[in-house]
Amino acid sequence: METTDTASAPRGLRGIVAADTVVGDVRGLEGFYHYHQYSAVELAEHLSLEEVWFLLVEGHLPAAAERAAFAAEVDAARALPAAVTGLLPALATTARRPLDAYRAALGLVAAQDGFRPSMDLTAAERRADAIRLVAVTPVLLAALHRAAVGARPVPWPAGAGWAAAYLHAVTGAEPAPGHARAVEQYLISTIDHGMNASTFTARVVVSTGADLASAVIAAVGALSGPRHGGAPSRALDLLDEIDAATGNDPAGTEAAVDRIVGARLAAGERIMGFGHAVYRTEDPRSRLLRAVALDVGGARADRAVIVERRVLELLARHRPGRVLPTNVELFAGVVMEACGIPRSMFTPTFASSRTIGWCAHALEQAAEGSMIRPAARYTGPPVEPLGRVLVA
Ligand code: COA
Predict the structure, then answer these.
(1) What's the 323 CA to ligand 1 centre distance in angstroms?
(2) Given a cut of 90, is residue 3 above it in pLDDT?
(3) Upper half-sphere CA count for residue 137 (Cβ side, 13 Å)
(4) Confidence at residue 5, expressed as pLDDT on a 0 to 100 scale
(5) Burial class (CB in 10 A: 0-12, 13-18, 19+), 95
(6) CB of 271 shorter than 6 A to ligand 1
(7) Among 55, 242, 338, 374, which lies 20 to 30 A Cα-Cα from 383?
(8) Which distant-in-sequence residues (6+ apart) come within 8 Å of 15 by Cβ?
(9) Is residue 257 lining ligand 1, measured as CB closer than 6 Å?
(10) Residue pLDDT, tens place only, 162-190
(11) Which residue, by CA, sits nearest to atom 2 of ligand 1?
């Protein structure tokens, strides 16, 4: 430890307040989260993604004139620099994962745009950088995906809402309105979620005075881990395994869960799509997305509900006294699959909406102006004179 008066923090900094924020909060015991003063679930149920994005930028819901002005501002910010567009195929085919290509591409956009350290910018300039980063993200992700799978590029459809345009640009086909709305609700529900690892990362980076693109790129790295945002396709892999074992027969689902999940738990493995660092009751995002999945329809959603119920029973038996709820990932995967988003794009799609939250926190941290710099406790051998070692 660097100073003797520094209190030591719990493992993983659990429960430590690292910032004051007006962006939102998560109430783990109540199963509730909000953006500014509004329930995130209600926002997802009633508003468009652009309206909620505006809320995260401005702190209030847009009036009609503000909505139109924001749409025009966002449209202008979606254009990719020509120099970057030309590099996307090489990035897409070189990178191992779409998020890796996206991080590299976003860095190039920021370089082309001439992003500067956040501490050298006015609040209005930082806001413009934040809008640019969010606006360009789904465009880059869709273009990189098309290039990675060798499909013809689809220009970002102007005038469509973000979710519909994204689905179109990723799949190459105009989406059914129900699918666009389902993806929009998913995107709204994942904009922000307290001081999670990637949001904290974004705040740490911008607290050094670095540019906002660096904060987002670092946050993407944190999000890529399976304990954070990298799990939705793994949750779906489990559903696949169970469906393969039963031949998609719902009647055999519970027995297959007992066998497959039971063996994993016995081996000390974690079941993807379950457990949460903060929720000790139902995750409100899983409640929302379960309803969205059932609304979009399909036998897969019905079977996922059976799997969920049985896994929750097994987890309760496995860890009595510890609530391990279904987290956002299980039904997020079911919704995205039903809407035609390929599995490789699940985490990138999550990243696209979370960029709104990262930027809101980064702007708040930049305005606050202090550098995040915790301490560490030294636990190595006692310090000894180097000379003694050299002589020996
Ligand atoms: N399956 C089985 N056991 C689980 C579990 C899961 N999904 N999640 C937690 N546990 C167990 C742990 O093994 C641990 O048991 P132990 O005390 O015997 O070691 C206990 O519950 C507490 O786990 P801990 O890692 O302290 O909880 P956490 O709050 O730090 O973990 C997650 C949160 C999300 C990292 C964790 O639940 C997890 O790994 N889930 C699976 C991955 C996933 O779905 N990620 C997406 C998150 S949105």
Answers:
(1) 10
(2) no
(3) 29
(4) 57
(5) middle
(6) yes
(7) 374
(8) none
(9) no
(10) 999 999 999 999 999 999 999 999 999 99
(11) 270
CA-closest residue to ligand 1 atom 27? 277
Instruction: Indicate the helix (H) or strand (E) that contains 35.
Output: strand 32-35
Give the 3-state secondary structure of residue 210: coil
Sequence-ordered strand ranges (E) for 155-286: none
User: Ligand 1 in contact with 272 (CB < 6 A)?
Assistant: yes
Please state the separation of Cα 42 from the chain's center in Å. 19
Place of tokens 């990675």: 148
Q: Which strands sit side by side in the sheet containing 24-27, from one edge to the other?
A: 24-27, 32-35, 38-39
How sure is the predictor about 239, in pLDDT bands with cuts at 50, 70 and 90?
A: very high
329 labelled catalytic = yes
Give percent of the chain above pLDDT 90.
88
From the list 50, 184, 308, 329, the catalytic residue is 329
Ligand 1, residue 270: give the atom nearest the CA.
Answer: 1
Q: Across the strands, what pairs with 357?
A: none
pLDDT value of position 2: 46
Instruction: Return the SS3 of 153.
Output: coil
**Residue-level pLDDT at 1:** 43
Q: Is 368 a catalytic residue?
A: no
Name the residue with tokens 């995002």. 285
